[in-house]
Amino acid sequence: MLQRFRMNGEYDVVVIGCGPGGSSAATFLARTGKRVLVLEKGFFPRFHIGESLLPYNTPIFREMGVLPKLQQGPFVRKFGAQFELGNGSLRTRFVFRHGRFNCEPEAIQVERAAFDHLLMRHARDCGAEIREGWTAMKTVSSPEGVTVEARGPDGQIHAFQCAYLIDASGRTNLTGNQENLREMHPQWKKMSIFGHFENVARAPGEAGSDTVIVRLENKWFWLIPIGENKTSAGLVMDKAEFSAATDDPAEIFQKWVDASPRLKEMMAGARLVGSLQTTTDFSYYNRSFIGERLLRVGDAAGFLDPIFSSGVYLAMWSGRLAAGVIEKSLLRGRPLPRLFAGYEKRLRKAFLFYWRVVDNYYTTPFMELFLQPRDHYDLPSAVNAVLAGQIEGGWQLRWRLRYFWLLVKLQKRWPLVPRISFAPQPRRRANDTELPRQDTMAQTVKS
Ligand SMILES: Cc1cc2nc3c(=O)[nH]c(=O)nc-3n(C[C@H](O)[C@H](O)[C@H](O)COP(=O)(O)OP(=O)(O)OC[C@H]3O[C@@H](n4cnc5c(N)ncnc54)[C@H](O)[C@@H]3O)c2cc1C
User: Fold this and answer.
1) What is the CATH topology of the domain spanning 2-48+110-184+284-354?
2) 128 near 64, Cβ under 8 Å?
3) Using a 6 Å CB cutoff, which residues line ligand 1?
């Protein structure tokens, strides 16, 4: 079979996909002198959704040596996150630097076209060979190595040999689909409508660059400032409701903006730049994150509802972890099963951790506690750390989170904090919802 392919040189590692997961893995490996080939089906810069990053991405940028380039890039510094009810009755702001268990005080909001391109160029500067316009079609692993068949820009199929493969193909989920490993989440059959807008109203001062999440009863919006006057806005809703609607996506988007006084207020002067887009296929994981000489990173391992902006961070975190496993295996001259198993375990733990948080996000008792945090045993600090991306915190953090889950269970039956309502509220006075001036770790504002 292989005779009909053009054979290419051998590589230590082939990485499929040059999103944040692929470029971080490629950078780490190339920096240690490995022969790395990245096959990317697109041509950069290209649009991608996923613009709100977490503070714990920063140490990864630092280790990759890309932080100074990012600091000079066209990105927005982000200091906190705001969560609010669409009827305007309640909102909370988490300020990252005030979280006791949180070592990273800020993150960035990015336009992915520029961000992914910068990461790709950095991987190339570090020595990775990057080929754009190459679509990996099939992979075959054996105890000796891996063959990747890819279609090049010339339309021909080529074969590449490598010792190890990293699948960072995102939600294309190339190897997971090839092996039929994908498990969809049983309930969250969601879809999203999103676009970039100018003139979306922002809070004054530092809070103006926060990610704002507005929760309606069974749907939610994000507002992510990605430029001086550019904001990414998106609606996440049930796929079934979307499919049953006769309106087009723009009408559905507007209908739900209009249903929320808060959103209506923020989007009053907004102007769409370009067109609205839609995406579906939310929340799945592969039954295995590893294979023979293969590691899956980022969305190619699993994809989570984006409510807590964990996607890019998990992609880069797993990219770094995968690079470490391969580096050591290459050093020993053979795959190290213990390290592969360790990768699977750590990534699954991190993934299930966010999976649980997201699962809870769609329940009312969680929202009640989350939007009305009490400074009780530093619980808001623990929640703050989770929002910042602290997924492997020590015992001090872990027991607080367990305690938080217990409170969520109790809240279901016995209200520890007041119940929330998604119903329309009486009209507020003009300044009622302005955030307090002083930054606290978690501020709650009620109207
Ligand atoms: C609606 C929505 C909103 C989101 N919001 C956020 C957010 O605010 N913050 C956040 O952190 N995350 C967010 N995410 C998640 C985020 O987009 C992803 O988790 C993140 O991009 C994963 O990175 P990755 O490198 O694994 O995959 P990707 O970024 O998807 O990169 C995969 C790359 O592989 C390439 N590719 C695919 N198939 C092939 C192939 N066969 N051959 C060669 N190349 C291939 C693609 O072209 C792409 O460049 C959101 C996701 C959605 C759907």
Assistant:
1) FAD/NAD(P)-binding domain (3.50.50)
2) no
3) 16-22, 39-42, 48-53, 135-136, 168-172, 174, 192, 194, 234, 279, 298-300, 306, 309-313, 315
